[in-house]
Amino acid sequence: MSGERMHRTGAIVSVHSTVSSPAGADSFVTAPHQELSLDIAGIAGDRHAGATRAAGPREPWLPRGMSLRNDRQLSVLSREELARIATGLGLAALDPGLIGANLVTEGIADLSRLPPGAHLAIGGNWGGQGRFDGHTLLRVEAYNRPCRGPGRKLAAAYGNPDLEFAFVTVARSLRGLVLSVAHPGVIRPGDAVVVIPPLLAP
């Protein structure tokens, strides 16, 4: 993605959190909500909320448990990429809550390929022209690499043990992104989303 002022646009389809998740407080499985209220630490009460997080298997070069800035406060997936994963797994549809989604978008092509430093500007009517008039700003931190944990949830939910490993392969490059809160607000289904590319050196 270049530094040109070309903005991809889409919309929020659904919002989810681990708050009141039927899978329990210790699970990453999320449940749908009518809205998400975000502060600077993420979704209040959500499993991934917080200003900091502990280093884990994604940082094998760091001592386990070391305190880090929380760059995984939320996850976002796209309806289009979820459909591609479902097709690859032989499923009619894929419940985004089973793989820990907080936000599901539609209309943003290649969501999973947005680079770190891009922002999702949510709400408002500006459409990427002029000044942002929405209510929430999220920063893209990283691609959310697929792992066997969500695969196990899918295998249990759909009664097919093969899905545990198949998910890791099929979801490669389609798993969505992890985000941090740049400006807090409330996110609801139907909100517009404008992708702001990172500012790159000429």
Give a quick precis of the structure.
The chain has 202 residues and is of the alpha+beta class. It has helices at 79-89, 148-158, 163-170; strands at residues 9-17, 31-33, 36-39, 42-43, 52-54, 67-69, 74-78, 103-106, 119-122, 136-143, 177-183, 186-187, 192-196.
Could you walk me through the main structural features you see in this protein, from its secondary elements to its overall organization?
The strands form 3 sheets. The protein has a 7-stranded mixed barrel. A 3-stranded antiparallel beta sheet has the order 4-3-12, with no helix packed on it. It has helices at 79-89, 148-158, 163-170; strands at residues 9-17, 31-33, 36-39, 42-43, 52-54, 67-69, 74-78, 103-106, 119-122, 136-143, 177-183, 186-187, 192-196. Helix 2 (148-158) packs across helix 3 (163-170). It starts with 8 loop residues before the first strand and ends in a 6-residue tail after the last strand. The protein has 202 residues and is of the alpha+beta class. The protein has one domain: M1 Pyruvate Kinase, Domain 3.
